[in-house]
Amino acid sequence: MSKQIITEADYAKVISHIDLDCFYCQVEQRRLGISDTVPLCVAQWGNLVAVNYAARKYGIMRNESVNEAKLKCPDLISVHVATFAPGKKAGYHLKPNQATHKVCLDVYRRASRQIFSVIQNFTTEYQKGSIDEAYINITQLVNDEIDKQISLGNIEFVYDNQSNEKLPVINWSQGGIATKYRVGSSSDDRDFGWSSLRSYYGAIVTARIRDAIFSQLGFTCSAGVSHSRILSKLGSSLNKPNKQAIILQTDVPDFIGSMKLEKLRFLGGKLGKNIKELLGVETVSDMQRHSLEKLEGFFPLKTARFIYKSCRGIDPDVVPSSTKPKSFSSVKSFGNISKLTTLQQVQDWVAVLSTDIWERLMEQQDIDRYWPKKLTLTMVSSKINVEARNCSKNFPLHFCKNVMESPELLIKSASELVIQLIYNTKNKKSLPSIFPVECLLLHTTQFYSYDINHKNKQITNWVSQSTLKINKSELQNSELTYDRTESAESHIVSSFSTKHYRDNLYGSSKKSPTSKKKPLVTITTKKNSTTLLSPKKNLFSYFDALKKSETHDQAENLSSEPFKTQSDQGKISIKPHTQENPTTPNIIKADPSIYMNQSFADQSIYNLSENNSAISDSIDFIQCTQCPEKNSNIPSKDWASHVDYHLALKLQEKEKHAEKIVNQFSNIFKKQNADI
DNA sequence: CATTATGACGCT
DNA sequence: TAGCGTCATA
After folding, report:
1. Tally of domains in chain A
2. pLDDT digits (tens, 9 = 90+) for A463-500
3. CATH of the domain at A66
4. Strand C nucleotides within 7 Å of a protein CB
5. Burial of A164 (C-beta count, 10 Å sphere; 0-12/13-18/19+)
6. Is residue A551 part of a domain?
7. Is any atom of nucleic acid chain C found less than 7 Å from the CB of residue A271?
């Protein structure tokens, strides 16, 4: 049993784990032109989310508060992440206020894309570990390299009496810095065997990839090379920053044996804790003493195998190669000071989140044409209030012309979701108050491709005939424009200084796409020339509009603002640029309220009445004035300020009706339970 | 250990 | 499938 679960093939792979060094910091350093040697950190509200290595020397760590950090190092440069601000362009604002601003991580996402794009030039077999991490299956690259070196006669062989085979000889010192860091002291400089040879060239290939990332984008990273994701991941953190590590098959037992169990990937959480408690183990080698059969007595089969293999440094699965994001989400949590107390505030913020996601979705269309089918809203509400309430609702997000034209439809969908969440709770007969709202999360998932060349009724309805006739190669070229057209150097520059179209997210996103009335007819092709297409609206027009407008519009914003941020931190004194009054905590002066007041709320986007009566009912609730909950702490004047009383009365009736139904259901449930 | 903003995936 | 939970990283 135990023998067949692990095979030679498990060791035949070569996997790199590449991890950027304090990623957010690096991005900010490059953006601001600050040297790596200057202590710098990236802050989000009061806390540090990234600390560079110069700052770590002062003992500054992630999660520390900015103030604490500055005590340790007065010269520390603290950069706050970019934010969306009411009525302003998204960017590096002076004094971002958690009550009114929203974090914007675009800059890092774009840098991340560039990094993955560099990796993709080596192989498509990589997996995104996170925004700054990649698992790369370099087996093929390594084998190719080995073949090449053999054919060049660069690899020496010796005859091994034990196995009756010719084995390759590895001279580790010949590989230079790339092959320098091996874990374990046992390894000699002279080594034999295919597994070691693969590791050797694995290290060389990995170093090439890292070099490419650095030379093309200026980012340093660390890496681990081994035959599994588990081991490579462990290796990449061994020699940070800007170095790599090799874990040879022969060194694996020693290497992970002494490790605490929770160091292993996926065992750092509850599972790891459970294992430790159930089996009374601490280290990985403790775990290795337990047979698979024993583990299966404690855990589900799959989990048991997973644990068994993990403790031996083996991946249960192959590295999937997927590059496209599978979901987009936008979150806003309101800390302790700015929890939301009115429906209007919730709707305003939901509009912000929607617009954020919409913009990112649109940006993504430039790279991959795919669109989510589902929109999920999650509200987190106070724990002191009734039972902790974290509930979510889904919504079908139809791909259609309108939803691409402006964020309005998305906003509207999301705001309907708010209403559903608040009023259509299914399993509670009396509706607990959702207020105050601590956190809002909007999530899009279930992407499907809408490749123009593929038949899809909705798409073909929308895209004009002439657009459909675009020749295929042109389309494919245009797909690549985002990451491939420009030389790497100009690329990073454009990314940081000009690619910033998300102006006035709060204020004018509504007009930016639609008010540009002139029909845009160009798509950018690979060679940076433009090709004329049908004058009708097509998929790409929107982006061309953006690309054109951003160049002169944005340059001043992203390139100059950051330095103000810097000065804000007390480094250089520059006059405090006229700041929007940090708006009062609870009132969002955000313009998305435009959306809310436009009363597009009373039109139904989708024809839902046929197949989803619950939703269509809820649409009526949108302008509800009165919170039906008894324990609601919503000031009634807040409600009264923007409601229609007539509708409210009607809605109250519906509310009661709905409650009845819920009660009926719960009675049925009770009966059923009684029967059982 | 926390916080906040993300993302992937698994279970039922 | 909807909805929730787990694990991860900056």
Report:
1. 1
2. 322 222 222 222 222 211 222 122 222 222 222 222 23
3. 3.30.70.270
4. 1-10
5. exposed
6. no
7. yes
